[in-house]
Structures are given as structure tokens and as C-alpha cells.
Amino acid sequence: MLLAGYQKEGRPVRDPTQAVVTSLDVLLIQIIKLRWRDDFLTWEPAEYGNISTIRLGSENIWRPRLVNYNRQHAEGWSELPDTNAIVRSDGEVIWTYPITIHSTCVLDIARFPFDVQKCPLKFGSWTYDSLDLKLVNHSKTGNIDFFAANGEWELLSFDLELNEVEHSCCPGVPWDDMTYTITLQRRPTFFLFNLVAPSVTLALLTVWGFWLPPDSGERLSLCLSLLLALTFLQQTVTTYLPDTATNIPLINVFFVANILLVGTSSILTIFTLSIHFNSVNLPPVPNWLRCLFCLGQSDSSTCRVNAPQVNEVDDVDTFFATNGANPTWRLVRRAKKFIRQFNEERGWKTHNLKTEREWKILVGKIDRCLLVVFIIALVVITASVLGPNK
């Protein structure tokens, strides 16, 4: 009898100029609760055995059909479930239905794993403006009474904001929407033990690695091992990050900076070992590097060591030419040739040793500069990652 002649396609008001006031309440247990008044679903309880409340299939009555504007669904807009609605004798309708919402959310992972995410759920009518359907909030915030805690995320707040906006399609016509903002903070304990702690340990090992001599083969082995470990950790971090993130986490910047510095240290170590085992025919240190690292001016006269002694021995040729081919002077001539070769070899060896020593001093200074740069970068990035949220 109650639904005789009822038209569910039309708004449930007797006055066409009157808006249907609809109360929206979202519970974080996959439940949406709507309340509104239907002028055509009223009766006198005394005439029907004092029955003041009945339940009707929601598919048989008018429904607000609010939608989530930023919902993401593989098959478009899904149909609302046909759960029963509670109807009171004064026309109040309460419709509660379960639903799982897949909503878009722009993630800010710059401070991963200490990030805080804010994800909005925007609800509104797709066909009725605020002159026909007026949204009101059932409470000041979303309902979290039955929220089940999550192991990875901590719920900080479930705020509610009621807006009245105008769309470009319909200027001058207000539309109501209600936005629930879910604020979540990642629980960092798991990542502290499995990502941050190993990262800091590897960074400290990198610092101590700079104290090894640059010409040490063990330092090269340590650098290569650190590169492998840092690359593995960086790939591990990537598996925990969404593909839709709009920025790069600082912990990845930390890994990349660490990898670059360790790689540069490895190149310096290889160069120093090459100098150590290939000290012959080394080019002199360029003047711009001497000025940059305060090595002083080069001494080009090093290769002319003992030049006076060689000239003095050259006088033997003149004496030999005036005294004939005496066997004794032949021996002296051979000795003179040996002394010349010895002096030349000693001069070049001294020159090579000096050049090698200058290159090693230069590499050592570059190594110390890298150590200072690495420590500064380590302190700045660690403070940015572990510091308080802004």
C-alpha cells in the first residue's frame, strides 16, 4: 500500500522548489550511511498497528546516488548495492550499504619511510545541484569507531569539509560536495631496521674506507663491495614505492650520492694503483692542478742531476785524443761511458720518483676533499630523512 503509485525516478518532495536534504556519513569499515526525508513515504502509525519503522528494498525507492568523484575503477562506475533501507513513519529514510572504494591519491614520498599521506574522498551528486539536493554533514569528522588498525599505516585523522562550488558547465548554479581527507602516517619501525640502519652502517663504512691508503688494493675491494650493497638496498627501496609517485625519496638521493662518491673513490684508487705499478714515463702534474691543490712549482732541473760530473768526464776524450791509443785509456773511456749512463739513469729515476710522489700527493688531497664532501652530504641528507616532518 505504501508504494502504490510511488515513482522512484522523481525527487521525493511535494514542493518542486524544495531541496532534498541528505546527510552523508562515511565509516572506515567499508560502510556509507545516507539520511534524507521522503515526503511520499509517510503514514500514521496508529492506522497501521503502531508500526513506525519498516524496511524496504532500496531499489524500489528514490536514492540520492552520490558518487565518489575521484574514484578509480577498472570498469567505470559500479552499481550501488541494493541493500534494504530503513523508512520511518515521518518520511525519514536511512540507507546504509557496504562498498569498497578505489580512489586516486597523489603520493608524496620525499620523506619515505617517514612520510605522511593525505588522500581525499570527494562525494557529491552527479545529476542534482544544491538547489535540488542539499548535502549536510552528519558529524564534524568521519566515523572511525570501527576502524581496524593497519600494520603499515597509522591513521592520524579523518577530516571532513563541505564545499559549494560552481562548474564551468553550469555557471551560476552551485553544486555541493563533501570531501573526507584521510591522513595516514607510515609506521617506520620495519624500514628503520631493514633499510635505514643498513644504509647508515654502509655510509659509516664508506667514511672509514677513506682512511685506507689510496694505493691499497684492499680499499678497492671495500669500495666495490660497498657499491654492490648500496645498489641492492636502492633496488629494495624501489620495491616499496608506488609507480605513480611524483617525486624521488631522499633516501634514494642518499643512495645515489653515496654510490657516486664511492665510485669516485674507486676510480681514484685504480688511478693510484696504476701510478704505483706504472711509475715510468708519468707525465708531470699540470700547472692548473698544482695551483688548485697548492703543490707548488715544478722543478724541471731534477733530470740534470750530477751534470758537472758528466762534463768533467767528457774531458777524458780530449786527453785520449792527445795521448794515443793506450790500453789504460781504453779502460778509462769505458768507465766514462758507464758513469754517464749511471748519472742519466739516476737523474731520470729521481725525476720519475718525484713525479710519482707529486701524483700521489695530489690523489691524497683529492681523496681528503671527497671525504669532506661525503661527510657534509651524509649529515645533510641524514638530517633531512630523519628530521621532523614539516
Automatic annotation (TrEMBL):
GO terms for cellular component: membrane. InterPro entries: Neur_chan_lig-bd (IPR006202), Neur_chan_lig-bd_sf (IPR036734), Neur_channel (IPR006201), Neuro-gated_channel_TM_sf (IPR036719), Neuro_actylchol_rec (IPR038050), Neurotrans-gated_channel_TM (IPR006029), Neurotransmitter_ion_chnl_CS (IPR018000). The keyword Transferase does not apply. It holds the Pfam family Neur_chan_LBD. It is a multi-pass membrane protein. CDD domains: LGIC_ECD_nAChR (cd18997), LGIC_TM_cation (cd19051). Residues 3-188 form the Neurotransmitter-gated ion-channel ligand-binding domain. The chain crosses the membrane at residues 190-210, 253-273, 369-387. Its main location: membrane. One of its GO terms (molecular function) is extracellular ligand-gated monoatomic ion channel activity. Keywords: Ion channel, Ion transport, Membrane, Transmembrane, Transmembrane helix, Transport. Residues 196-293 form the Neurotransmitter-gated ion-channel transmembrane domain. The keyword Membrane applies. It is found in: Membrane. Belongs to the ligand-gated ion channel (TC 1.A.9) family. This is Neurotransmitter-gated ion-channel ligand-binding domain-containing protein. It comes from Branchiostoma floridae.
